[in-house]
Amino acid sequence: MSDKPIVFKSLSNIEEAEKIGEELALHHIAYEIESPPQLLDRNFIGEQPMPEHYIKLLPSDFTRANEIVESLYKNIAATVGKDYYLYDFSDEQVLDVVNHKSEWGDLNYYVALEILVKRGIPYDKQLTNVLEEEAAAIVPQPAKPFYLLLVYIILAVSFIRPYPYFSIGGLIVGLFLYGASKTLKNGTRISYYNPNTRKNGMIIIAVSILSILWFIFRLITLANN
């Protein structure tokens, strides 16, 4: 297991990330919050695999951190009033929130559990956790074919009209498609994109490097002339 901090939780809300960080610090768990710039348009990558902010921890701290974060969300959910929109959901809709935690987020998940308890509806929490983890592990995403084709066309143009930003942009896209990953609750990292998309990422990386070398060659040739 890695001895360097890796992504523990991805969040779109910086206040939520900071709140979790404060709770981890109270339990003497070192953390980092990173908010990298979004380099690629959502239209290209589909659903963004890496939201705006992520909390990084040492993998060895994941188990304890999950317990701390779970306790935090439970406490918050217990204080949510009945004016919260999930209270207007039917029993089936609330169960759907519980069974699709990755889509609804941690807070909604624990609020939904609180609602089920108050309504006296039984649920299998252990089964829900297993289904959630399995779903995260077995659904690698494909990139949209149209945008892959667009990248290849741009790289082809870069050999005819050698603009360096075409080549560099292609390299960034290729690295992203090949290297994007997500981290399961136990600290295991898995690829975000499916094997075919990752293969395209490798091809785009190779073609981009050739395009950069071609640009350098053209510069040298022009300089000598």
What order do the helices and strands come in, and which of them pair?
Blueprint: E1 6-11, H1 14-26, E2 32-34, H2 42-45, E3 53-57, H3 62-79, H4 91-99, H5 101-104, H6 106-119, H7 125-138, H8 145-160, H9 164-179, E4 181-183, E5 189-191, H10 195-224
Antiparallel strand pairs: 1-3, 2-3, 4-5
Helix pairs in contact: 3-6, 4-6, 8-9, 8-10, 9-10
Structural write-up:
The chain crosses the membrane at residues 146-179, 200-220. This protein folds into three domains: 1-60; 80-139, no CATH class; 145-224, no CATH class. It is 61% helix and 9% strand. The protein has ten helices and five strands; from the N terminus they run E-H-E-H-E-H-H-H-H-H-H-H-E-E-H. The longest helix has 30 residues, at 195-224. The radius of gyration is 22 Å and the shape is elongated.
